[in-house]
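ARCHIVE CARD
Drawer: 12
Card no.: 0347
Subject: one protein chain, sequence and derived structure
Cross-reference: see card 0346
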Amino acid sequence: MAEITQTLVVDDFDKTQAADETLLWVFDGEALRSDLTRENAAELRAAIKPFRDSARSLGKQKVVGRAKTKRAARSVPATPVPDEEPAAEPIDPRWFRSIRNGPVKIEAAKKKYRDMARKWGEQRGFEMGLRVPQEVFDAYHQYRESKGLPVGPASVGLE
């Protein structure tokens, strides 16, 4: 006896209709996936368009997974939303951690910052292992602030 199992993907927003497409996007550093009808997907795109148009591009990002429609032969390109925090909010204390699949320029700048912190810590007697301890990054950040030097991503030209 043969058995066929079908999965119905329902719109995540209104949960009343079958979803037509899957959108992969990023907001506040969190990767999100939304299964939506064509109408709700268009509404989402229209809502973020003014913010997307005024944002700075970080280049192409590697997105794990693939956007899908009902027909498997046709795929809809993912629409990542640039992750941008207002300047008034504090910098994430772990911004320099590598995500290993980010844009080359950004990952190189993060590595430069880690190398600068490592060298600074070694000169001041901090014990280093394979990874630079968070306490070294914290002390380096405070040192740069006290000297009036740029801190965070701005210290390596990312802002």
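Annotation on reverse: Residues 68 and 75 are 5 Å apart (CA to CA). DSSP finds three helices and two strands in the chain.
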